[in-house]
Amino acid sequence: MAGPGKRITSSLGILLGAITATALLCGGVLLVMSPGRVARTTVTALEVPTYFFSGAYDYTVNHDMSEQYLRQLDAPVKGFYLFTESAHSPIFEEPDKVARIIKDDVFNGTNALADAS
């Protein structure tokens, strides 16, 4: 279980529901947080490039809160991408934009296309 201020190290770190997350998938291991804990206060640093995809019309995970969390998160490369035509599933709602970001930024470990970092 991840503790407060826990630094996550892995070749892959993916936050599930960045703001209200109750789980973190890290290097193929699912870390489940105790009830009432949220990622933004439990996971404060990642030692891997970190990318957040947020839909402008997502009423499950607020994009402003996601961007704020990314700004406070310590990571070597960070990218926040706002999908203006999407709700909760940008990968399905704007697949061409997702593919371009993955190809140009994620695969290269950069954040050139990011709306914020």
UniProtKB/TrEMBL annotation:
InterPro entries per the UniProt record, alphabetical: AB_hydrolase_fold (IPR029058)
Lineage top rank: taxon: Bacteria
Keywords on record: Membrane, Transmembrane, Transmembrane helix
Transmembrane segments: 12-33
Gene3D superfamilies (UniProt xref): alpha/beta hydrolase
Name of the molecule in the record: Alpha/beta hydrolase family protein
Lineage: Bacteria, Bacillati, Actinomycetota, Actinomycetes, Propionibacteriales
